[in-house]
Every structure is written in C-alpha cells, then in structure tokens.
Amino acid sequence: MTVDTTGHILDVRGVQKRFGGVVALHDVALALRPGERHAVVGENGAGKSTLMRIVAGILAPDSGEVLIDGQPVGRGATAALDAGIALVHQELSLVPELSVAENIDLGNCPTRYGFVRRREQREHARAALAEIGVDLDLSEPVGRLSVAARQFVEIARAVARRPRVLILDEPTATLTPSETSHLLGLLGRLSDQGIAILYISHRIPEIFELCESATVLRDGHLVARPDLADITGDELVDLMVGRELAKDLRTERRERAPGEVVLRARDVSAAKVRHVDLEVRAGQIVGLGGLVGSGRSEIVRAVVGADPRTSGTVELRTGDQEWTPLRSYARAVRLGVAYVPEERRAEGLALGMTVADNIALPSRGRLNRLGVMRHAAMASLAQDVIGRVGLQPPRPRHEAGQFSGGNQQKIVIGKWLAGSPRLVVLDEPTRGVDVGAKAEIHQLVRELADDGAAVLLVSSDLPELLDLSDTVHVVRDGRVVGTLGSQDATESAVMRLAAGKEEQIV
Ligand SMILES: Nc1ncnc2c1ncn2[C@@H]1O[C@H](COP(=O)(O)OP(=O)(O)OP(=O)(O)O)[C@@H](O)[C@H]1O
Ligand SMILES: [Mg+2]
C-alpha cells in the first residue's frame, strides 16, 4: 500500500520488525499532517505498540525509516524526542519514589551547573499540569497517586516537551468516563495547535469521537487507512479482524437463577475500605461499580485476603452446612478462589515463565502426582486454555512477557479457568483487551457463572459492568453507597451514585 506524503509532518516508511520467529511489523507505512488526529487500531498483538515504539525511537526497526518534515530522525529515544516525537506508554513508565514535579521533568530537567533548579522544576510542572487542566500536589510521590492520576502525570510530561507528534498508547484504559472526555477534549485542543496525535485504543466510540483517520493493522500488516467519516464502527471492527465479526459480538444477557450464598463478607474494613457487607451466590455475577480510586480494588483485595483486614469476617461455603473463614490469600486459593488482579504485570503473571507454566500454577495440586508434574496433562491443559481464550500467537512454550498487553491478560484469565473455581474475583478483566477477545472473555465469565461459580467483578467499563452483572453495588470512598438490580442499573444511575454530588477530574 502506498501513502501520499505531501504536506506531512511525520512519515514512516517500509518498517519491518521481527522478534525471533514472529514478524511483528511487515512493511508498514504511516503519514500524518500537522494537527491530524489519527487512530492506530488492531487486535491484541497486531503490532500497534511495536510501531509506536519504533516511531518514538525506543525500538530500532529491522528496516524502514521515520522522518519528520522529510528529515530522517536519528536513532534512539532522545533523537526522536528532540525531533518532536513524544510517547505516552501503554504500561506507565514513571518513577514511583519521585514526586509529581520530578517525574514531569524526568529527562527534561532544567539544570544549571549540574543542579536541578527546584523552583524552575516546580514552575515548569505546575504549568504543564495547568495546561492539561489537572490539579495535583506537586510534591506527592507518584507511587501514592491513583492509576488515573499517574496517567495524567505521564501525559503532562509528554505535553511539557511541546511535541509535534504526540503518541498515546491506550491512555484511557484506566480512566473514568469523565476523565476520558476531559482527555479527549484536551487532545482536540492540542491538535488545533497543530500537534499531530497518534492514538491507540480498543474503545471504538472514543476513536470516532476524537480521530479523523485510522491505520488498521492486522498481524503486522497495514490493511487499511480509512477516513473515519466514511465508515461505521462495525466496519472498522471488521477491518481489524478481517472477517464479519462485529455482529457476532453482541450477546444476549440471560437471566440466571442464582443458587446458595457462596461468599459472605460482614463488616469488612481495611485500608480504604469501610464496613463493607457483601454476598455472592452460586451462579451469580455481582458487580462493583464506581470511579477509579473509589476503593473497589481494595475491597476485593481485602475479601480474598490479598490485603490485611482491620475488622470483619469473610467466609466461603465449602460444604452443605460448612463455612470456612478466608484468613489468607494462600488459603483462599486452596479453597477454590480465583483472583485476577488489576496489576496483571506485577501480580497476575510470572513474566519470565512460559504460558504453559503460568497456566499450570493454580492447578498444581491436581497436576502433581507423587510430586511429579504430569507433563502430558499440563500440555493438554495449556492447549485447552489457549484455545478457550484465543491466545495469539497460540504458543504454550513462549514466555508470558513476550506477549502483547491484551494477550497477557488472556493468559491471566485463562490460568484460573483451568480449575473449577467456587468464587471468581475479577478486577478490570478486559482492560486493554481487543473487541473480539473481550467478547470471548465475557462469554467465559458467563460460562463460569452458568457452571455454578460465584463471580465478583470490578469494572470501570460501564457497558461491561451492566451487561455482565446481575446486581451492581456502587462504591464511593471505600463504602457501598447503593445497590442496583439488573433492571435499574443504567450508566447514569451508576455514575450518579459513584460521583456523589460533585464530579471531578482525578
Ligand atoms: N519484546 C518482545 N519479544 C518478543 N515478541 C514481542 C516483543 N514485543 C512484542 N512482541 C510480539 O510482537 C507482536 C506485536 O506486539 P505489540 O505489543 O506491538 O501488539 P499490540 O498491537 O500493541 O497489542 P495490544 O493491543 O495487546 O497491546 C506480538 O505478537 C508480540 O507477541
Ligand atoms: Mg499494545
């Protein structure tokens, strides 16, 4: 496919990139006019992040070139930054111990005689935050901020460099709807100033709201470069997956008759959790809605025993009339609790281990006989799970760390499907997962409930939360502030409860 390059600020030509046997990018071109708002879309593993990292000089291509104003950009991230290309990463790259101000200035410090001038640094950071319309304490260590706030610090850092091309790799995955519209408004204004925006997201409505044009990648190939005014969301999805899938994605929600109470939590308190009561029945999906930072993750962590509780009891039904207290996370896992955490890279996956080994971890007990892992059983388990979650590429012997972001999430979910969990706790299970895989994961969650598992779900994706849950508890400030049945759970009802009176950014 050839791309007309007249009047372009950015030109990417003939980019090839291979990782061992995997061709991540195959002769890909990309061109942007000043102020153009351009989406890069494709399924998990299509090559989006790889292409962006090459444009930003973080990764060297095997061949091909990146030009700004017709001039080749030198190798390396610094050269790309100097040429005006700034990247906001998919996995955040801030230093948790450093303050907001220090992070915004990272690698961009006003120095004199080798000293960082703190006053200048703070002024600079203050201006950058003001520009993006976000109010944060400049001296707060970034590690103490919510994920959403960290995301805005990362964006402030990129904007502070006055880039000519601003790349954002799934920036809204951790944002609430109001934070997302704040960001989209900001990006619109930056593009009016002539900054070209390269925007990666799996959320189709967002892409249409912000972008004029898109590059569609499929298996590392550039398959289309549509003007978004000319096509529908379903047509864009069909281009991404290469078949008519969009209409298969709509699933009917089914009424389920819940069984006995499986999880019983009474008066649970912990850091950021205040006196929470919860019950989940067999075959029931209970959703926790609320803003990012409202304490939903803390509630589920306290429930499964991943974080210490300061009060309350949590019990799991382990027999007809038998209840077992959940005192520690290790115990919970032994009793059949499956927990998919929010921070999948840190907690959910052993990145250096193979897919097959990761999948076998929770099922160790079953697979171990006389202390010897049954390799054949392990291999067939891995094959089964890989098929069920649609892992790409479907390679059980590859290290988990080599998979794209969305595929890593599939491995985390897949490893819990292998057992037959009594209670499944999912925290943002489809963050960063592409449309097709998301529908597959939703189906898997429903199947788990249909097979009798009790499911506790945290999701900031409102359509997902409303679609899957039989009951939604809305959380604010670590408390349940309202409960909605599937009939009255609407997006606005959840958001009203979640926001309390006033709604604010970060
Ligand atoms: N460091 C690496 N080592 C080996 N393979 C890699 C590495 N980085 C990426 N890949 C492979 O390159 C391909 C493209 O990955 P990439 O991360 O660019 O996908 P993506 O489109 O960003 O997906 P996602 O939507 O899941 O973020 C995938 O097959 C991935 O497994
Ligand atoms: Mg990616």
UniProtKB/TrEMBL annotation:
<keyword id="KW-0067">ATP-binding</keyword>
<dbReference type="GO" id="GO:0005886">
    <property type="term" value="C:plasma membrane"/>
</dbReference>
<dbReference type="InterPro" id="IPR050107">
    <property type="entry name" value="ABC_carbohydrate_import_ATPase"/>
</dbReference>
<keyword id="KW-0813">Transport</keyword>
<keyword id="KW-1278">Translocase</keyword>
<feature type="domain" description="ABC transporter">
    <location>
        <begin position="249"/>
        <end position="502"/>
    </location>
</feature>
<dbReference type="InterPro" id="IPR027417">
    <property type="entry name" value="P-loop_NTPase"/>
</dbReference>
<keyword id="KW-0677">Repeat</keyword>
<keyword id="KW-0472">Membrane</keyword>
<keyword id="KW-0547">Nucleotide-binding</keyword>
<dbReference type="GO" id="GO:0005524">
    <property type="term" value="F:ATP binding"/>
</dbReference>
<protein>
    <submittedName>
        <fullName>Sugar ABC transporter ATP-binding protein</fullName>
    </submittedName>
</protein>
<dbReference type="InterPro" id="IPR003593">
    <property type="entry name" value="AAA+_ATPase"/>
</dbReference>
<dbReference type="Pfam" id="PF00005">
    <property type="entry name" value="ABC_tran"/>
</dbReference>
<dbReference type="InterPro" id="IPR003439">
    <property type="entry name" value="ABC_transporter-like_ATP-bd"/>
</dbReference>
<keyword id="KW-1003">Cell membrane</keyword>
<dbReference type="InterPro" id="IPR017871">
    <property type="entry name" value="ABC_transporter-like_CS"/>
</dbReference>
<feature type="domain" description="ABC transporter">
    <location>
        <begin position="10"/>
        <end position="244"/>
    </location>
</feature>
